[in-house]
Amino acid sequence: MKLSVGLKVANSLSLTPQLQQAIRLLQLSSLELEQEIQIQLDSNPLLEKVEDLSTIESLSSLKESEAEQKDLTNELNADHLPDDLPVDTDWDDVYTHQPTSLGAAEYEEREDNRHGHQSLQAHMLEQINLLHFSLVEQLIARCIVDSLDNKGFLDCEISEITSSVQHLLNTMGYEEEIEDDEVQVVLKHIQRLEPVGVGSRNLAECLLVQLEGLPAQLPYRYEAVLLMKHYELLVSNDIQKLMKQTGLNADQLKSAVELLKTLKAHPGIEFEDRESDYQIPDVVVMKKNEHWFVQLNPDVVPKLRVNAFYAGMIRRADQSDDNQYLRNQMLEAKNFIKSIDERHKTLLKVATCIVEHQKGFLETGPEGMKPLVLRDIAEEVELHESTVSRVTTNKYMLTPRGLFELKYFFSSHVGTTSGGEASSTAIRAKIKKLIAEENIRKPLSDNTIAGMLKEEGIDVARRTVAKYRESLHIPSSSDRKVLI
Question: Among residues 175, 197, 219, which one ends one of the domains?
């Protein structure tokens, strides 16, 4: 074998730190990007955020007010004070007149009536403290309250509460024995506090406690209590057997069910913290002159630049440590700004391509959704599928039909009788519409829905309809059937 030395030219892709940074920024959400930018601003002195014009104007007005304040101080320090001293406020700036028939005040002062969120446990303890409970009963009540779930139901067995109370009593040096009956008595008192039914072990007990708290002369209260004794038949919607065992006719049964619907199925749900996790859109879509336009949300687009003061301190021929530090920081700042810019360009390019494909959804709603996969967008924008996947993850688009994640516009397809394709999202919307318009006494079966879709040219099997129906959390036809 002969050994030789030669040169070979080949192309290869290496993940440089700049490329790694660009890929990482590409998959960040708007909130994560804001946090990353703040980290870079704190660590790199050559990177700064461009302030808004309003901030600059406020700073200039602040300087003018400081100059006026200095002039006022000089006049007050003079030997002879003038008759009319300058003031920085007018009478009209302080005095607020009462509204009359000639006009109303521009701003009306209102008392802030907002209050903090109170948990279910805190609400129950406030009421328990007003009851004439002994020390042991207070301890039992607190253990019960600590065992409530978010819906207000008791999330453990009576024996577990008894064991917990007994352990606490032994820890405090009490030798008193606790039985399950004592816990049951305290639980009965708690169930009749506000909201009524809290501490119940299941839905049937919760509704029954609320019925017992209603006036005895209330119409159909007795019939509703009778229904709750056959709760299993009511849940299974076995109307004929329910009427036979309770002895109620159809009208009485219907009125009793209407009374049950007025009760609270989950008494503790109103105490849940309803603060929503709002999503900020990355892209905004709007229609102008019969054309759809896509633009980045200016509120989430950062305005960054290199600090001119520190950049001017860099000297070309200086090789000192300080000068080298400034050079490295300026290079990192430029690379970061470039990566941010590339991120937004890629996001805008992908979002524009998605809107071009899904104009039917924007015009008509989910039924107009077209089948779309990542490969289709990747080929059009000349990017890799993995890049498109990173761009569409945790990015949101604001449309006239609502706020959607970019992933929402991608869906699988089902063949049609004409040889075309239909989006699974559009099929789900059609199924939901058909069920919403059905006769509740004769609900549509999955086989019937499949036949109706086939008449519209969508060839789907019954099991596919069942899968889509279950993904929409819609019960089967037998569970949807209502006879009263």
Answer: 197
